[in-house]
Amino acid sequence: MPTVGVFCGSNVGIGDRHLRQAASVGREAALRGYSVIVGGGLVSCMGAVAEAARHCGAHVDVIVPRVIMERSCLDDLPDDALVTDDIWEWKREIGRRADAFLVLPGGLGTLTELLEVWSGRTLGTHYKPIAVVDAEGVFAPLRDFVVRLVDLGFSRTASMNVLSWAASAAEAFDHLERHPAAEQPAG
User: Fold this and answer.
1) What is the rounded distance in angstroms from the CA atom of residue 63 to the CA atom of residue 84?
2) Under a CB-based contact definition with an 8 Å cutoff, are residues 121 and 127 in contact?
């Protein structure tokens, strides 16, 4: 069973449409036979992904750095949640366990996670597929910025081709399934 690491917002106050989009990712993962890794507390979009995935029969792993657990007073974590000593171990553990990555809109943490898996794929430190579900264009300025970096010669054109931008969970999972982990560097 393939495992998808999902990065998304966990801030309280995110609008309902983003929560529904996150839940659609959890449902689609379960329907397609994926296990899901969420990287923090079971709140907001991250909670919506986990809850929908579990409700539809998927196995969900929760991995959370101790600092987030302590700051957020997360007392509703499942007994089998993995609490890491620091954020670096947390990122390594998600990266080690996931066969693919799916990113939804989120804050600065989500942005760093997206950039890390994106640059890692570009540099060849991993060859796992990456899909970004961005129906509302939240990441459009980032896409434009990376195009500018390519235009100025700071980044290779191939860096734009190592991930897929999707408007729906179904489209994102279609990409992940068409592009399983590669054996050779992208581009």
Assistant:
1) 7
2) yes
Q: What Rg, from alpha-carbon coordinates, does the chain have?
A: 16
Contacts of 168 (CB under 8 A, 6+ apart): 24, 133, 135
Count how many residues are written for the chain. 187
Q: Which two tokens stand for residue 167?
A: 């408007």
User: How high does pLDDT run on average in the chain?
Assistant: 90
3 C-beta neighbours (distance < 10 Å), count:
17
Can you give the pLDDT at residue 78?
Answer: 67
Residue ranges covered by each domain of the chain? 3-178
Encoded tokens for 44 = 């907001």
pTM: 0.92
Strand partners, 133: 166
User: Contact at 8 Å (CB) between 129 and 95?
Assistant: no
CATH number of 3-178: 3.40.50.450
For strand 164-166 and strand 82-84, is the pairing parallel, antiparallel, or unpaired? unpaired
Question: For the residues of 36-100, what is the DSSP string, one character each?
Answer: EEE-S-S-HHHHHHHHHHHHTT--EEEEEEHHHHHHHT-----TT-EEESSHHHHHHHHHHH-SE
